[in-house]
Design goal:
single chain, mainly alpha, Tetracycline Repressor, domain 2, 2 domains, 11 helices, about 0% strand, TetR_C_34, Homeodomain-like_sf, Transcriptional regulator, TetR family
Length: about 230
């Protein structure tokens, strides 16, 4: 006897149907992440948003973390597409160009809080409850994304070689992972740092990340020059 299909989210039979289902799941998860912290979003809640059950989601994503990894990958691809259009081209002084690139990079990320939140959870949460196959697939896609970002940098900052650009990209991810949670604390922390004596505890993500990027780029330009002497 065949079980009845789930209301609102029937099982896909063909590859193109599976892709439609996967997109619907990712879209539902993205909607929920816009409404509440990632730690509060469960597979069951995503399934409810779709009118189905948790088992229907697990047919496509083995865990919540696997789903979030794919959502992170999709969001990062969209960000890179936008960043490539927005990054300034050479034409000004090196110092001015570094400043403009850092500011554009930082602000484009600040406009995408879901991407930053998931990125900040990558090593500590998202890679902890998934199979090696899922992690491998994600890391291969991540490698391509990071190489693409490094390529954007060397195209606009020709005084940085490939090695320096890749180092910059790796360091920028470390900064995002550490900075985003401090710039977006929970309600209890927000209430605590409302104390005027703790004014310095307020962190503006875009401003701080832009400054950190400028420091990294300036330092790498100097080191790159030292290596090529």
């Amino acid at each position: 006897m065949h079980s009845a299909p789930e209301h609102g989210f029937q099982r896909a039979r063909r590859p193109e149907q599976r892709e439609v289902r996967r997109k619907a799941i990712l879209d539902a998860a993205q909607e929920l992440l816009a409404e509440q912290p990632a730690q509060d979003v469960s597979l069951r809640e995503i399934a409810r948003r779709l009118g189905g059950s948790k088992s229907g989601i697990i047919r496509y994503y083995e865990t919540r973390e696997a789903l979030f990894l794919e959502l992170l990958q999709r969001a990062r691809q969209e960000w890179l597409d936008e960043l490539e259009r927005r990054l300034p081209r050479p034409g000004s002084s090196p110092d001015d160009l570094v400043s403009r690139i850092a500011d554009t990079w930082a602000r484009s990320l600040a406009e995408r809080p879901m991407l930053c939140e998931l990125w900040s959870m990558l090593a500590s949460v998202l890679e902890r409850n998934v199979s090696p196959a899922v992690i491998r697939e994600f890391k291969l896609a991540n490698r391509e994304h990071m190489l693409r970002l490094a390529g954007m940098i060397t195209e606009r900052l020709p005084f940085l070689d490939d090695a320096a650009a890749n180092e910059l990209v790796r360091a920028s991810v470390v900064v995002i992972v550490g900075l985003w949670p401090f710039a977006n604390p929970g309600p209890a922390v927000l209430e605590a740092i409302d104390d005027p004596r703790l004014a310095a505890s307020h962190v503006d993500f875009a401003e701080t990340f832009s400054r950190d990027l400028q420091v990294l780029m300036t330092g790498l330009v100097h080191l790159n020059g030292e290596r090529t002497r």
